[in-house]
Amino acid sequence: MNIQAALTIGAVAKRAGVAIDTIRYYEREGLLPEPTRRPSGYRSYGEGTVAQLRFIRRAKNLGFTLEEIRELLALSADRQRGVKAVRQRAQRRLADIEARIAELERVRAGLAELVEACPGHGAPEQCPILRALSGEGRP
Length: 139
Hints:
Blueprint: H1 9-16, H2 20-28, E1 36-37, E2 43-44, H3 47-61, H4 66-76, H5 82-117, H6 128-133
Antiparallel strand pairs: 1-2
């Protein structure tokens, strides 16, 4: 790697929109390769690291775990089965998200019902929300 073209950890963090500690964490977790070191001992990065960090950040925003992101990074280099396997992992992630949304919608409906039933005044023992939370009423 050309030292003149190399980036400091601060420059990489700024370009990728992440914190310096995030870069170090991803290195420890094996999501990023260990950087080369300058004679001074400082880390030296290339533009590829910026691209990888953006990939990781976008994958996290889509709900992928770090382990899944590690797999996606490995599959992105697999010319034989990479795209098919990436699609399968994305389909699984989508199914997980849809299940979580369904659960949240169920919780929202139950909570909305309790809020609607609560007058907002009176004795606490008559509050449908408190009764439901204590196991006396409908959840």
